[in-house]
Specification:
GO terms for molecular function: aminoacyl-tRNA deacylase activity. By secondary structure, this protein is of the alpha+beta class. It is built from seven helices and eleven strands.
């Protein structure tokens, strides 16, 4: 099947790609209860060597700079306690960590989680972390602009491959809060 966005030759329902997905992502797809059928959550195979945004867009389609979103693991700290969370923003925006994220986590300080912490805690590869299959109890903040996209390209949990799904499915993932202005335009 042809992907609804990008120049991908082969898009398959992600649920049919168990050997290409990490265990937490596959488990979340098997338990899928979102507003769209799980078959609309698509997997497209991509070259991990072409993951840099500019190279990725040049290789897989110019529209992807407007339809891609990044999932970032953040750490909020308050009173000696650290809360891990994830945030999804359009690829054209940068995450407002010290403003919107900090406020929504009720944290005194918020920052990007260290790479080792993000990878170990999520069970996913760095550079491929996805909001699908995050640990239970993690807050998930999704920028309203990403949730409003007809189709959005996100990580698959691995550096190889991406997931394409309707934006409204992002806003319905477990633990999600849709936030206006979570991402701010890159300068």
């Amino acid at each position: 099947m042809r992907a609804p966005i990008g120049d991908f030759d082969d898009a398959r329902p992600a649920i049919e790609c168990p050997d290409l997905l990490p265990a937490p992502v596959l488990a979340a797809l098997r338990a899928w209860a979102g507003p769209v059928p799980v078959e609309q959550v698509l997997f497209v195979d991509t070259d991990p060597e072409k993951a840099d945004t500019a190279v990725f867009v040049a290789t897989y389609g110019a529209d992807l700079d407007r339809t891609s979103a990044n999932c970032v693991v953040v750490a909020g700290k308050r009173g000696g306690e650290t809360t891990l969370a994830a945030a999804v923003v359009p690829a054209t925006a940068r995450l407002d960590v010290n403003g919107a994220v900090r406020r929504h986590l009720g944290a005194r300080k918020a920052s990007f989680a260290p790479m080792d912490t993000a990878v170990e805690s999520s069970g996913m590869e760095y550079g491929g972390i996805t909001p699908i299959g995050l640990p239970a109890g993690w807050p998930l903040l999704v920028d309203a602009a990403a949730a409003d996209l007809p189709w959005v390209l996100i990580g698959s949990g691995n550096r190889r491959g991406k997931i394409i799904l309707p934006g409204k499915a992002l806003g319905a993932l477990p633990g999600t809060t849709v936030v206006e202005g979570l991402g701010v335009p890159r300068s």
